[in-house]
Amino acid sequence: MKTRFMCLVLCALMLFSAFLTGCANTKSDSEVTDDIVDKASNNATTLTMWVQTERKVCNTDEELAAYLKDECDNDPESEKYKEAVAVKEAYDAVEAAFTKITKSKFKTNVDLLFYTADEYYDKLEAAIQTYEDQKVLAAKAALALKKVQKQALVSVGNNKAKYNEIAASVKKQFMVNFPDYAQFLEDDNQAEETTEDTAEETVVNEYGFTELKYPDVLKNQVDIIYLSGYNTYKNYIEKEWIQDLNEELSGASRKLKYYISSTLLSGIQMDGNSYAIPNNVAIGEYNYMLINKELFDRYYYDIADIKDILDCKNYLSDLAKQNETLADADKVLPIDATFEECMRMLVWYWDMDYEKIGLNETLTNAAIQAAKDRLDAQNEGKPDDQKKQWDNSPEALEKYNVYDYSYKVNDDVAFSIMGTVYGGADKRTRGSVRLAFDSLFTNANYRNDIFLPMMKYKYEGYFGSAADGQTCGITFMKGDSSVLMEYDKNGYYTAKDGTKYYPVIAEYPEATEQDLYGNMFAVSSYSRSVSRSMEIITYLNTNTDLRNVLQYGVEGVNYELDENGVLRRTSKNLYQMDIKKTGNEFIAHPEEGMPANMWDMAKLQNNNALINPLLGFDFNQITKDNGQSLDVRILDDIREKSKSALERINAIETDEQYQTTTERYNALSDLVEQLAQELKTSNKENGLLMKAASKEYDCAEKGDTFGESPYTVYYAWLVQYGYDVKSAAIDR
Predict the structure, then answer these.
(1) pTM check: above 0.85
(2) What is the fold of 45-115+201-282+513-610?
């Protein structure tokens, strides 16, 4: 990360704090809170905090004057004029309430800068660019001074002792001759006169009380910034515009780990480092398998024995037997879902499209050289008339797979011979299990414990779509953690139609890109103080008072609280902020209309949330960055074999020679074993499936010029970006 630079032309050198040291893991939350306060700098400081608001705000008197002139014709009687003035007053009052807390706790004055989404990044990046420009000039100044100093040394015959006698005057004269550069260079005489024990300045306020004097906000000062979106986050990291916060998160700000979801904190890391603090929000939705309580209890089953739909074999069989005694109108639908939908809860099927977009020069040269070496080896010792000649035509080169491609992973594939067995709903996560590129039909777990049992369900006619009012043995529903809370309280979940169900988690909430990167606060690389900035971010996410001021404003002015702590905005409230953009949702007051236990439900949901194993992964970007290409023979081979296997599987279902479910199932079992053997034989012939399933296939070592295995590229990405890669039973 670049050094934290603030040019002297803006009137101050930026001070870099190193006082937030690590704390022992044995400290309590209250002790950590005390650390934050105790480790605050002794000196008063001023920071800026850039945030997004829901309405246009003039942050300064100058901005307001310009707005009133340009947009309101300086007409005090116009509604637009009155609103602009009133809005600024409302936001100024909130800023005063916010900074009153931060001054009291940290001797930090916080200048809040409010911008709408339309103007936010233009304003922010223009401010950052001033520092980028100044850094270039500072580098030029240092280079110019070095050149003058070198000339001075030559002038005294390279005598360092004589040069040392004139060094100070050389620098002083340089600063006189080059005033544009002088602003970036420290005055040695002035530096000697300053001490670290300078007393803090004080002022007498309007009430006659002495108080600390806080430094003025510097022009274009950027300290704490709101960020939104994966691409923005990644871009700011690559440009070195935001700080690595690992040290702070291991020190006084480690309290954040108790308040911010671990899923969010770990998911937002890049290269194993944290560059921002995500705002706690409710992540995703559960997919619940709802088992009809009345029917399930009728057959004396224990819901504790049910982990997924495969555990429901006996229950579904009992429902089928019951249906034999009922009229068609009274029959129970065993599973209100399709076979394909249920399989996706158990298995990730892998498939990929690609499009040829041009020759890859690097790969072409490597392939040509490798082919020439093989040809030379074949021709060695042969007469000239028997030697094979090199063919450099495009047609000849094509067989070496020397092209660039555009790749697209198909996330919603219904079937493939390659994929990953999840091994349980809670295992579908980056970290505890990675997506493998496993040859499924050679995997006994998939073949015997998942595919065949699920196909038997299909043959038995268990899957379908419920008619209006039809009773179902099992159905599925997306929902939040209130379902689990109701189940814990009552022993069942009651649907809107009054039906009671046992809820079983089929799929856990899965963090999306928006969940992870949608709303976060970072510290600018040009911040006046990283540690002081992190104090504010930490307190914002852990202290209810500060959090509610930024979100809702001033109590009694912008909102009121009832006896239960539920918030209602006042009718004349002009302060409008999005709760997702202002910090930790879970310590904010619940608003009118929200469930009283809203944040308890959200916390439970986040504790159970997973990270999509492919989140942030892009074959196109990774292969481009690493100068790679995929072996498209693998992609074609898998696509072809998957299509053929599915056709043969489907043919059994419609073959009239099988009169019973048992006969059809036995035929399918035989076919599955046959497919396993065929895939093993095919792999021996061309090695493509083995290559596809290898996480560390080394093309260079094997002299393979056809490109990388998809799994090799994916696995390298996991390692490259610091994700915790652990082995799973299925990942052999």
Answers:
(1) no
(2) D-Maltodextrin-Binding Protein; domain 2 (3.40.190)
